[in-house]
Amino acid sequence: MKNFISIKELSKEEIIEVLDTAKKLDNTDSDERRKIMDGKIMTSIFFEPSTRTRLSFTSAAYRMGCKELGFDNPDKSSIMKGESLRDTLIMVSAYSDIIVMRHNIDGAAKFAEEVTNCPVINAGDGSNEHPSQTLLDLYTLRDELGSIENKKIAFVGDTKYGRTVHSLSKALKMFNGELYFVSPDIIQIPDYILKELDQAKIKYKKLNSYEEILKDIDCLYMTRIQKERFDNINEYEKVKNAFNISRKDIEGKCKDNMIIMHPLPRVDEINIDLDDTKYAKYFVQARNGVPTRMAMLALATGIIESKAKRKEIDYEVVENKEMVCTNGKCVTHFEQTKNKVAKRSYGDFCYYCNREIGK
Ligand code: CP
């Protein structure tokens, strides 16, 4: 059994194992594939809206013969009667072989791992991480560019709250990526992520526009400016139209084999006139969620045995009630947690939401 909580817990070997397993499952005869998880139950609990993640996990489960329980509207669960996330998770783990959870609170997935006794897959926790998205992004990069190594990737849009950006940047540390974070200053990539890139000696640059680097990059990774993450709506209004790329902005100005990715949903940041160009890979990317999530379900439950070792932990865990996480959206402020701190050589970080304590 293994959990997928944060991409940075995975070794490179493990990431490659997921991608190879996904490719194999995608090419497996559908009748054979339906036997793989026959008799197993996946419970998906979604506390935030989702189209792709929830439905592709469901599709992945069904394609392997796995049954599904769950809810996508917590208003219909006993959370509405005041039940804690902790108790909800304990109950859900009693009914399931695997839990797939999306939550609006940062660090909720790490907390779920602590309180349950069945495998947990993080389907997105607040603005923290989205590891299953990252694995399908890496699958897409490898398929479309032939390799993930040494690629120049520009993240454009909301790099502050964008959990897909955070998770993919952490993964690209392992593949010598050269990264550009293109955002208005108020939604630029947080320092606690850059600190990790600095540790890994990864090259990156913060920019306000993408035009100057367009000709050099292998992938333009667009993201939505996420209205729901802003505390102050006026701040959102200032940046909501920061990017709107269309065919005329791209054609003749980039590498011939550059690809455009987007975790979706999009709002206005990619004009539909790009959809039928050779650059547009965002719908293929979303489709790749099915094989990638099939691999995650099979490897997490141990139905397909994982041979890859997990990365060694690079921190010491201490329980310290005095060291309160300064991220007001962290699970430590909503649930009875053990207030764990991950002490690293380069700082003290919240064990649950990964923010640097006191910063
Ligand atoms: N990419 C992604 O997480 O999409 P959904 O929010 O629709 O699941």
UniProtKB/TrEMBL annotation:
<feature type="domain" description="Aspartate/ornithine carbamoyltransferase Asp/Orn-binding">
    <location>
        <begin position="150"/>
        <end position="299"/>
    </location>
</feature>
<dbReference type="Pfam" id="PF02729">
    <property type="entry name" value="OTCace_N"/>
</dbReference>
<dbReference type="InterPro" id="IPR002082">
    <property type="entry name" value="Asp_carbamoyltransf"/>
</dbReference>
<keyword id="KW-0665">Pyrimidine biosynthesis</keyword>
<feature type="binding site">
    <location>
        <position position="265"/>
    </location>
    <ligand>
        <name>carbamoyl phosphate</name>
    </ligand>
</feature>
<comment type="pathway">
    <text>Pyrimidine metabolism; UMP biosynthesis via de novo pathway; (S)-dihydroorotate from bicarbonate: step 2/3.</text>
</comment>
<feature type="binding site">
    <location>
        <position position="81"/>
    </location>
    <ligand>
        <name>L-aspartate</name>
    </ligand>
</feature>
<comment type="subunit">
    <text>Heterododecamer (2C3:3R2) of six catalytic PyrB chains organized as two trimers (C3), and six regulatory PyrI chains organized as three dimers (R2).</text>
</comment>
<feature type="domain" description="Aspartate/ornithine carbamoyltransferase carbamoyl-P binding">
    <location>
        <begin position="2"/>
        <end position="142"/>
    </location>
</feature>
<feature type="binding site">
    <location>
        <position position="163"/>
    </location>
    <ligand>
        <name>L-aspartate</name>
    </ligand>
</feature>
<feature type="binding site">
    <location>
        <position position="224"/>
    </location>
    <ligand>
        <name>L-aspartate</name>
    </ligand>
</feature>
<dbReference type="Pfam" id="PF00185">
    <property type="entry name" value="OTCace"/>
</dbReference>
<dbReference type="InterPro" id="IPR036901">
    <property type="entry name" value="Asp/Orn_carbamoylTrfase_sf"/>
</dbReference>
<comment type="similarity">
    <text>Belongs to the aspartate/ornithine carbamoyltransferase superfamily. ATCase family.</text>
</comment>
<feature type="binding site">
    <location>
        <position position="102"/>
    </location>
    <ligand>
        <name>carbamoyl phosphate</name>
    </ligand>
</feature>
<protein>
    <recommendedName>
        <fullName>Aspartate carbamoyltransferase</fullName>
        <ecNumber>2.1.3.2</ecNumber>
    </recommendedName>
</protein>
<dbReference type="InterPro" id="IPR006130">
    <property type="entry name" value="Asp/Orn_carbamoylTrfase"/>
</dbReference>
<dbReference type="InterPro" id="IPR006131">
    <property type="entry name" value="Asp_carbamoyltransf_Asp/Orn-bd"/>
</dbReference>
<dbReference type="InterPro" id="IPR006132">
    <property type="entry name" value="Asp/Orn_carbamoyltranf_P-bd"/>
</dbReference>
<feature type="binding site">
    <location>
        <position position="264"/>
    </location>
    <ligand>
        <name>carbamoyl phosphate</name>
    </ligand>
</feature>
<feature type="binding site">
    <location>
        <position position="133"/>
    </location>
    <ligand>
        <name>carbamoyl phosphate</name>
    </ligand>
</feature>
<comment type="function">
    <text>Catalyzes the condensation of carbamoyl phosphate and aspartate to form carbamoyl aspartate and inorganic phosphate, the committed step in the de novo pyrimidine nucleotide biosynthesis pathway.</text>
</comment>
<feature type="binding site">
    <location>
        <position position="53"/>
    </location>
    <ligand>
        <name>carbamoyl phosphate</name>
    </ligand>
</feature>
<keyword id="KW-0808">Transferase</keyword>
<feature type="binding site">
    <location>
        <position position="130"/>
    </location>
    <ligand>
        <name>carbamoyl phosphate</name>
    </ligand>
</feature>
<feature type="binding site">
    <location>
        <position position="52"/>
    </location>
    <ligand>
        <name>carbamoyl phosphate</name>
    </ligand>
</feature>
